[in-house]
Amino acid sequence: MTLGGVDTDHLSSKTMECKNIKGLYFIGEVMDVTGWLGGYNFQWCWSSGFVAGQWV
Questions:
Q1: Coiled-coil stretches, from where to where (predicted)?
Q2: In this structure, are residues 55 and 11 in contact, taking their beta carbons and an 8 Å threshold?
Q3: Total structural domains in the chain?
Q4: Potential cystine with 18: which of 5, 24, 37, 55 (Cβ 3.0-4.6 Å)?
Q5: From residue 8, how far is each of 4, 15, 38 by CA, in Å?
Q6: Do 28 and 6 touch, CB atoms closer than 8 A?
Q7: Using alpha carbons only, what angle is made at residue 21 by residues 11 and 47, rounded to the nearest 5 degrees?
Q8: Each residue of 11-52: pLDDT tens digit?
Q9: Domain residues for 28?
């Protein structure tokens, strides 16, 4: 995972949708999320994509 990206304070944690722009979703490494190394970034990408996909 990388540092920087879309501030998670601006996103719904339930849908990954931008709070200011309806219909705009962010997932994976484009978000400002920091985690452990070792494949967890793949899990975050898949999980956040799955969550956002439920709402599109």
A1: none
A2: no
A3: 1
A4: 24
A5: 10, 12, 22
A6: no
A7: 35
A8: 999 999 999 999 999 999 899 988 777 777 888 899 999 999
A9: 8-53
